[in-house]
């Protein structure tokens, strides 16, 4: 193991974007090249980790190098490496070193090829060359830089062969002139092993300033409702139903354009059976983690069995794959949908498969439930709050569905076994997540499963 590999192996497990936390490593290697050799020097490393179970993952890590310590970058310091001439070289997380963020856009404007990395400008709008980027500290699986108020670069940390669906779908919706996305300005890819497709490294989009994310707006509405003990959800000044309806319309617009410009196909019986089997397998795995799911297990299996035999017609198409209130922004002109890469933990090939728009609808309906009930965690035994949370959730779920249907989305039947099953499957996933990360939040998906399995 080289000195740089050794540094990265010690630093990566502590990063939010690293997905292998808690897994035992068998081997690690890195392959790097220089993207810019000015001051600071910028190198890019592909770090391949082999775990003891035989699985491998490859991560992208840009480093900036300085000849002396930079006190202002103490929080980004990774370590020092002694060069062949005996001098110390100081390595920093290049995404947190503003001076080292300039070359990404310089190369994108020039459509450069640097070593195995190729830069592809979309050629549709101005790219702010020469500006440094400021990191967004709240992200988890990826890392993003904002350049001024005009562009945002998302670096995909975990590399897989193939075009990332975030790039592919944004490009398709740009061609369709859909108004509910932030425009794609370009993307970057890196060559893989012989015979492999290039992996997507990053994408550049138009930055949307002065926008509010859907989760923040929705939860603010819930707080307003809780503060007005004598008013119903439709009487509170912060009523969110109008926004929920417009969000439903925006979601339907995105789905319609994806079906128009990307492939579609009718679902066959094998698809329904496979879907039901996958849901059942996820339930079985979740039961081992969340014993409280046991009381719902039989009803969930019955619900999933109904999916295998349903006659609901489905036209499979490209979808968002991980839609919730945190993935949408409200601007002065309407809703913008973000992050079309799907669930980052799933293999890229699976995220690019055709699916039903009902999966996205179910994800958003689950998000309304979370927004309504998140404050119940503080007062779980308050029946008045529980009633108001249910009232808010029902009102906004109904408004979203009404907007979606009115804008020409796939029909949303009230008795849809598919939609109910997708919601339940998502709630089972949430139970596992909460049990592992926020046990005091487990009550939220469990209460939803009570509703979903009772047929209410």
Q: Can you describe this structure in just a few lines?
A:
This protein has helices at residues 3-11, 102-110, 165-175, 214-227, 241-261, 269-287, 294-309, 348-351, 358-373, 383-406, 417-437, 443-454; strands at 25-36, 41-51, 56-66, 77-82, 88-93, 113-114, 117-121, 134-135, 142-147, 151-156, 158-159, 184-190, 199-206, 212-213, 265-266, 315-316, 328-331, 334-337.
Terminal Cα separation, in Å? 58 Å
Radius of gyration: 24 Å
CATH topology of the largest domain: Aminoglycoside 3'-phosphotransferase, Chain: A, domain 2
Total helical segments: 12
Low-confidence spans: pLDDT under 50, at least 5 residues?
none
Overview of this structure, please?
This is Maltokinase. It holds the Pfam family Mak_N_cap. InterPro entries: Kinase-like_dom_sf, Mak_N_cap. GO terms for molecular function: ATP binding; kinase activity. Its EC number is 2.7.1.175. The protein is an alpha+beta fold. The protein has 3 domains: 92 residues; 107 residues; 243 residues, Aminoglycoside phosphotransferase (APH), C-terminal lobe (Aminoglycoside 3'-phosphotransferase, Chain: A, domain 2). It has 12 helices and 18 strands. The strands form 4 sheets. It has a 7-stranded antiparallel sheet with strand order 6-7-12-13-10-9-8. Strands 1, 2, 3, 4, 5 and 11 form a 6-stranded antiparallel sheet that branches. The chain has a 3-stranded antiparallel sheet with strand order 14-17-18. A hairpin with a 4-residue loop joins strand 2 and strand 3. Helix 7 packs antiparallel against helix 11 and helix 7 packs across helix 12. The N and C termini lie far apart (58 Å). The mean pLDDT is 93.
């Amino acid at each position: 193991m080289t000195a740089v590999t050794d540094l990265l192996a010690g630093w990566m497990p502590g990063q939010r974007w690293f997905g292998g936390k808690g897994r035992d490593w068998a081997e690690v290697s890195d392959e790097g090249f220089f993207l810019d050799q000015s001051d600071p020097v910028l190198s890019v490393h592909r770090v391949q980790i082999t775990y003891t179970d035989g699985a491998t993952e490859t991560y992208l890590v840009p480093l900036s190098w300085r000849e002396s310590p930079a006190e202002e970058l103490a929080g980004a310091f990774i370590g020092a490496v002694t060069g062949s001439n005996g001098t110390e070289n100081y390595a920093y997380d290049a995404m947190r070193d503003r001076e080292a963020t300039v070359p990404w856009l310089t190369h994108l404007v020039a459509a450069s090829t640097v070593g195995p990395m190729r830069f592809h400008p979309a050629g549709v709008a101005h790219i702010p060359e020469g500006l440094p980027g400021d990191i967004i500290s709240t992200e988890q699986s990826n890392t993003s830089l904002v350049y001024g108020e005009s562009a945002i670069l998302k670096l995909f940390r975990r590399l897989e062969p193939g075009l990332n669906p975030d790039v592919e779908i944004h490009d398709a919706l740009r061609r369709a002139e859909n108004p509910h996305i932030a425009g794609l300005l370009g993307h970057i890819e890196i060559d893989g092993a012989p015979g492999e497709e290039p992996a997507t490294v990053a994408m550049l989009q138009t930055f949307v300033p002065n926008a509010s994310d859907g989760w923040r707006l929705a939860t603010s509405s819930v707080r307003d409702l809780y503060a007005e003990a004598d008013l119903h959800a439709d009487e509170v000044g912060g009523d969110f139903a109008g926004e929920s309806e417009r969000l439903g319309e925006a979601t339907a617009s995105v789905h319609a354009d994806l079906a128009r410009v990307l492939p579609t196909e009718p679902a066959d019986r094998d698809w329904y059976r496979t879907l039901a089997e996958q849901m059942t397998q996820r339930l079985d795995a979740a039961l081992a983690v969340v014993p409280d799911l046991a009381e719902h297990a039989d009803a969930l299996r019955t619900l999933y069995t109904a999916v295998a035999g349903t006659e609901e017609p489905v036209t499979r198409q490209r979808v968002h794959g991980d839609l919730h209130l945190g993935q949408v922004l409200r601007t002065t002109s309407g809703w913008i949908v973000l992050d079309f890469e799907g669930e980052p933990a799933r293999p890229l090939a699976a995220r690019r498969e055709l699916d039903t728009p009902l999966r996205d609808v179910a994800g958003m309906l689950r998000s309304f439930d979370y927004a309504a009930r998140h404050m119940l965690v503080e007062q779980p035994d308050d029946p008045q709050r529980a009633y108001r949370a249910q009232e808010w959730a029902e009102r906004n779920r109904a408004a979203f569905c009404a907007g979606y249907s009115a804008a020409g989305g796939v029909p949303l039947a009230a008795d849809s076994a598919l939609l109910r099953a997708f919601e339940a499957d998502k709630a089972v996933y949430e139970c596992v997540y909460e049990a592992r990360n926020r046990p005091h939040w487990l009550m939220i998906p469990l209460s939803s499963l009570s509703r979903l399995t009772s047929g209410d």
